[in-house]
Amino acid sequence: MFLLALLLAQALPPPMPVDEEPSALACTFEAALGGARCLYEAASAPGTPRANSQAAADAGLRACLAEAGRDAGLRKECEAAVAEASLGARCALSARLADDRGLLTVEARGCVEAVREAVARTSRAAALSGDCCKCLGESRCAVPASQCRR
C-alpha cells in the first residue's frame, strides 16, 4: 500500500505557480469611475473606514476636476457631492476597498457606484448647462448662473 502511494505521488505533476499579477481588466478607482468595464479582483482584507473614505474622495475629486472643466462652481458642487458619498455607508467600510497597488476589491462596488453617481451629476450639468445657460443669458432671463446649472 505504501509503495502504491509513493508511485502515485511521483506520477502527479508539480503544482502550478500562482499568478499574482492583476489582469488587464483589473479595476482601479480611476478606471471604474471613468466607466471602464473592469473586474474587482483584489483580495479582500480588513480596512479602516477612514482610509476607504479618503481613497474614494481622492479619486472622486480627480474625476470632478476632469468632468467640471473650467467651471469652478460645478467643480465645487461635484466635490461636495463626492465628499458626501465617500463619507457614506457605502464607502466607509471596515473591509478595505483597494489593495496597495490601487486595485479594487469586490467590497468597493457600492462605493464606486455612489461616487460615480455624484460625478455623473456634474458631467450631465457640464454637458447640458452651458448652452442652456447661455441661451437664458441672451434672453435676459434673471436666473443666476449657479441656479441655471442646477
Summarize the structure in words.
With 150 residues, the chain is mainly alpha-helical. 57% of the residues lie in helices and 0% in strands. It contains 6 helices and no strands. Helix 3 runs antiparallel to helix 4 and helix 3 runs parallel beside helix 5. The termini are far apart.
Write the layout of secondary structure elements.
Layout: H1 2-11, H2 29-33, H3 49-68, H4 72-87, H5 109-138, H6 145-149
Helix pairs in contact: 3-4, 3-5, 4-5
* Secondary structural class: mainly alpha
Please estimate the helix content.
55-70%
What Rg do the Cα atoms give? 24 Å
Unreliable sequence segments? none
What keywords describe this structure?
single chain; 150 residues; mainly alpha; elongated
Brief overview, please?
This protein is mostly helical. Helix content is 57%, strand content 0%.
